[in-house]
Amino acid sequence: MLILRLKSEPYWLDLPLGVRLHVLPFGRALGQAAREDIATSGGDEDDDEDPGMRLEAICLAVAKRGIIEWEGVGTTGDDAADVTETNIEMLLDNPSIWATFLRDYINPGFGVITEGNVSAPSPNGTSEKARTTARTARVSVPSAPPA
């Protein structure tokens, strides 16, 4: 069953250090637009580079598309920083901001996208329909005692 957990309207996402991001809902359209941004910028998320770098590039492209406004982000003075691609990159260079953004925005969005990809596991696990290849054990072994 597909569980729709994403919001349908832009919403505020609270991050560490008093930062708040006004973000677009993250769904298939935003993810596809981010992949197209990577392709047109000369990057390719499907090449043989490090998977971690590929994930980071996709997440950064999603952030650049998804963040529409923010609070609590400033320049070296007391001025509020504009939402620009460069400033988004600088914001996400902060490890606690990055980790929370990934956990609260990116992961739930990708979770819904992959749940809806028509590749759901079989009712009792991914191998329920597969042919059994292991032989029956000859000796029964007792379970480990509870910890």
Task: State the gist of this model.
The protein is mostly helical and 147 residues long. Helix content is 39%, strand content 9%. The chain has one domain.
What topology does this entry show?
Layout: E1 11-14, E2 20-23, H1 28-40, H2 51-66, E3 67-71, H3 85-92, H4 95-115
Antiparallel strand pairs: 1-2, 2-3
Helix pairs in contact: 1-2
Biggest sheet: strand arrangement: 1-2-3
Strand content: 5-15%
Structural class: mainly alpha
List the secondary-structure elements in sequence, H or E. Answer: EEHHEHH
Distance between the termini: 35 Å
Indicate how many domains the architecture comprises. Answer: 1
* Low-pLDDT residue intervals, each spanning 5 or more residues: 117-122
Helix fraction by DSSP (H/I, runs of at least 4): 25-40%
Evaluate the radius of gyration: 21 Å
